Amino acid sequence: MANPLESTHLRRIISEALSDDKHFEKIKNALSYLPSEENTEKLRREALNILRSRGIVDSVIDSVFSNNRSVFKGGSTCEYKAVVREIPFRSRAVEFDYDHIHEVGLRVDLIRGKAFIGHLETYKEFVEEEQGIVKSTVIFYASCNNKRFRSRPVPYTSDMDVNECFFIPLEDKYIDPQHLLLKHSMSLLNIVCVSRECCTGRRQLVARASIDWRRYVFPSSSAPERTTNPWGVQFSLELQSPGPDSKMTVGILELCLTILWPTVSKDACLNVETNSADDPHSAHQNVDREHLVCGPNPLPLQVVEAQLGLESARSSQRERSFVLYARQWWREFTQLREGAFAQRVIKIFANDENGCSQFVCSFIRPLSGHRILETPSVAARFVATIPCEAWHGVGAGPKEQWCSALAFVTRNRGDVPDHANLLCSLLLGFGLNAYVAIGTRQSSVSAGEDPDTSLNQASGRIRHHAWVVVLQMDPSAVLFWDPISGRRYVHQRGTPPAHPYQTVGCMYNHRSFYANIQPTDHLFHCCFDVNDSSSWRAMSSDVISSVVAYSALPLVALNPPYHKACELSDQVEIELRTFSSEWRSQRVKQSADTWFWDRQLSQALTPVLAGFEADQLRPPAELPEDTLDIEPQVNMLPLRQYVPEGFTFKAYPIQLLHTNARRILSTCLRSRLCRDILSCQGDHVRLGLRVRCYSYAEEAIVTWVMFACVYKAVL
């Protein structure tokens, strides 16, 4: 138990924090609409919920901790204040031990968001937010070099306190500011903001931004003003709303960037500066040997501006040269065979989520699955578990817009090219010779795919399709990989195709871009020998590498699954069983004693669902007629043994790409078989339900559900 004197002191500290003018005005405005004459427990709970949703409770707690560190930490003080400016909030993500930092790193503090009003479409929603009703949360993702970070969910309101902190290692040993400025010219900080609806779990991309952190932490005329710390700066970042037709600002993110240095004491710093002129090697040894709290002096303003200006000029020249090269290449391509190729599907540029035109090869980079995705089949299954959805802007019909890989996997939703780009990057990471193919497909839509992504010949509108091509040693037989379903097809020239693809216009990866210049682009007659210059026209690999090397669009690293599949399966199954029982009780006028949920029946469904998922990971095997696949029989054996003789067994399995129980039940009830199972009547009615979730990486998840019933029919 707490000491009474400590409790009294703590109450006094909290009272002083609440009396602060800043907090008092926030609390007064937030609770102004509540009736002042009532003082009930319900009203007090409502007031507390409002203060929590607005971030006021967190702000008060942060103020208490920051102003009374000696009370909570036993009077200890941080010796790193000479380098790191005091941040006016308590970081919840990382507790830094500044006495044990042995590498140069970038500290990123996400402080708060302002003027986020994109989620408020009606006046009613604005009033509900004022009343403390929050319908969604926001998660911030950050990546730099090969490091990625994820914030905790915070209520999605117009003004929100984020209070998150990330540490990005830059160098594993001491490096002077000049070398740091030169070495990290391609080290961009990517920030993605994603919202998640509380009721449905649906995720939406709020904004994505890529910033060159050096332009903020190094002194320059365009950098924000800084206070005491020369290596820390706090500024506001304007975030642009994504979408094909949106050019508006979605909100303002206030953040702080600080470089942390593993430095030596002031006397040692002077020795380092003296020794470095005579023996640079000994200076680095000194720095690695000692570690205290003084940072180096900032670079002169003229040096920083000269270097950043030189990089900007080179970047502009590089982009201009590539555009001129692409125009000339396209002009020569369209003049081949007297302009017969002008109508072919050749995709050179695509707009990203911010509306910027990007070279398609910039979306690809080899991505290692490490121990997360251990085979190409598992990688393809992971990509297939990400829902497919085209962008829709103002007006009818889908809009073509591609996503950066970080925005794609964090939003957990994207169009067909997004799936193809990610799958190609993963297959390249396994060492396969993979390309993204752009062409058209047949008008029929295979199961599990969005009809909007197909070739819509009936309406006269042909929409491009994308898939992955893996070239083997023999160019006459290539492997097609569908990024939406994960299916694999072996394509051989001159044989009737088993795949849905019809034509191919171009292929690309991070090193190559090939356009089809064969007499016909129909796959039945196409040759996939990309070294044959009479069949494929290539772009210069040197020109491609000069653009792709500076791209911030591919994924820097793959994260393990965020969800705990077993716990999530149990949770969804409990919710789904409750909703199903409610649905049955409303429609079946039968005593509750005449039926029940059977645990043994539910357990017998587990190996069947596991077999369904295992089938997705292996190609369809062509077994000889005298060979029996014994695994499905083994999976079905518990069910056969469980169902008594003379009883009827029915089952309805389904695969979904979300875990919302209400949406799952609504989808299942569209099937007459599922409705018959849940409304089953007879003698000794037993219902079974099994939910099994699988998550291979990131936020993606696939849910298998099976309803079953066992009963004896009444004659």
Automatic annotation (TrEMBL):
Signal sequence bounds: none
Residue stretches making up the CEP76/DRC7 peptidase-like domain: 400-539
Subcellular location: Cytoplasm, Cytoskeleton, Microtubule organizing center, Centrosome
GO cellular component terms, semicolon-separated: centriole; centrosome
Pfam families, alphabetized: CEP76-C2 (PF15627), CEP76_C (PF24652), CEPT76_peptidase (PF24656)
Domain Centrosomal protein of 76 kDa C-terminal: 568-712
GO BP term, example: regulation of centriole replication
Keywords: Cytoplasm
CEP76 C2 domain mapped to chain residues: 106-260
InterPro entries (UniProt xref): CEP76 (IPR052299), CEP76-C2 (IPR028926), CEP76_C (IPR056288), CEPT76/DRC7_peptidase-like_dom (IPR056290)
Protein name: Centrosomal protein of 76 kDa
Organism annotation: Calicophoron daubneyi (Rumen fluke)
